[in-house]
Write a structure and sequence with these properties.
mainly alpha, elongated
Length: about 100
């Protein structure tokens, strides 16, 4: 009997749940924390937000090539970051390769 653990192939939605935990944790730290906990929540919140804004600008051309609503792509990237755009990039690269 094989008792080894299966390989972890988390779907993008599973990874997106982790991002929600990060955002909610930041909000709880900011509004209910005090001292260094509140400061850490603010730092993580703003660093994450700035990183996601930068990802939006870097991937504008990718979003145009993917089609669909640009607003959708921007909002999803602001929330989920690379967990939104990396599957799109992989799909487009697979479609373009011979």
């Amino acid at each position: 009997m094989d008792r080894s653990l299966p390989a972890c192939d988390a779907e993008p939605m599973d990874k997106k749940h982790g991002v929600w935990i990060l955002w909610i944790g930041c909000a709880l730290a900011i509004f209910h924390g005090s001292g260094w906990v509140a400061i850490a929540g603010q730092v993580v919140f703003w660093v994450t937000l700035v990183a996601h804004v930068v990802e939006c600008f870097i991937n504008l051309e990718l979003f145009r090539r993917a089609g669909g609503s640009m607003t959708h792509h921007i909002v999803q990237t602001l929330i989920y970051g690379l967990f939104h755009w990396s599957p799109i990039k992989a799909r487009l690269e697979a479609e373009e390769s011979p």
